[in-house]
Design a protein that fits this description.
Elements: E1 5-9, E2 12-15, E3 19-23, H1 28-39, E4 43-45, E5 54-58, E6 63-66, H2 70-77
Parallel strand pairs: 4-6
Antiparallel strand pairs: 1-2, 3-5, 5-6
């Protein structure tokens, strides 16, 4: 997984080695993380205008929004391919 690239939805890719966490966006703390990243100009919206279904935190403190379910991303990061 050191150099693998993972599709996080709609043609957007991320280096798997840089990902620290994949989180569900439903809770209030996740909304605060999202807003804080936006204020710091560290938010990357990779949803292509769709509903945010996962929040990806990277080692560089960037926050990436994805329209793909957390479970699907977990499969992709673990090498299962996902949908």
């Amino acid at each position: 997984m050191a150099n693998s690239i993972v599709n996080i939805g709609y043609g957007n890719l991320v280096m798997a080695a840089k990902v620290v966490a994949v989180l569900s966006p439903e809770s209030a703390p996740m909304r605060r993380i999202r807003e804080d990243a936006k204020e710091r100009k560290m938010l990357i919206d990779a949803t292509q205008g769709r509903k945010t279904r996962a929040i990806i935190i990277t080692d560089s403190d960037h926050v990436i929004l994805s329209a793909v379910q957390v479970e699907t991303l977990l499969q992709r990061f673990s090498g299962g391919g996902g949908d």
